[in-house]
Amino acid sequence: MRRSTGGPAVPPADGSGPERREDDRPIRVVVCDDHTILREGVRVLLESQPDMVVVGEASDGEEAVTVVDQLRPDVVLMDIAMPRVDGLEATRRIRDRHPDIRVLILSMHEDEEYVFPILEAGAGGYVPKKTASTDLVNAIRTVARGESFLYPSVAKKVVEEYLRRKERPAPDPYDGLTPREIEVLTLIAEGLTNQEIADRLFVSVKTVQAHRSNILQKLGVHDRVDLVKYAIRKGLIRLDKG
């Protein structure tokens, strides 16, 4: 485990620095990345800020979880691609153990395929490594306040992917069965004969047989036992129903 020996920089005398937090403490940050040069550069940047201090570092995801357990920082700056345990799993573990600790992802990846899993794991923000130093500093301050931060290019992709998902048709819970076929399936699963179903629905036995054939074909099953299993799985009947 690596701890910082430096302290936060002195605020400007003219008061032009960032606003201090309510308890007047600096933002305590742990930097997690498998590249030593990057960690050192980030440390120099953050400790030049009047309201931040780097309290620890980690070079892989497993070490990150251990360091966070011991130091309880305010913000964890996390890379995704790291050895032993990746940043996604490390983020999930940290958020599970310490819901009050914020995780900000710093990664070379900007694709939504990376962004969505990270956000679902509980990260409070996502910043690409190509970002300007001022944006990184602002992102840390934002997530430290309990807010979320997405770099503009990343936010745009997240919104686009959200809209694409929204436009996709909702999955059919009954695999293309029509309302009448679902009704027939339920009665078959309840043990009614073709004649009893025909009488119940005021249709001919031939119509019931046609429905049964269509249901078997759509579901790719072969007999009544399979239909009963399907009906139970979909909640159409209960096991104790006679």
Notable traits:
242 residues, alpha/beta, Rossmann fold, Arc Repressor Mutant, subunit A, 2 domains, six-stranded parallel beta sheet, 10 helices, 48% helix, elongated
Nutshell version of this structure?
The chain is an alpha/beta fold.
- CATH homologous superfamily (4th level) name of the largest domain: Response regulator
Q: Per CATH, which architecture of the largest domain?
A: 3-Layer(aba) Sandwich
Mean pLDDT: 83
Instruction: Give the fraction of residues assigned to helices.
Output: 40-55%
Oligomeric state of this protein: single chain
In angstroms, what is the radius of gyration?
A: 29 Å
What are the secondary-structure elements, in order, as H or E?
Answer: EHEHEHEHEHEHHHHH
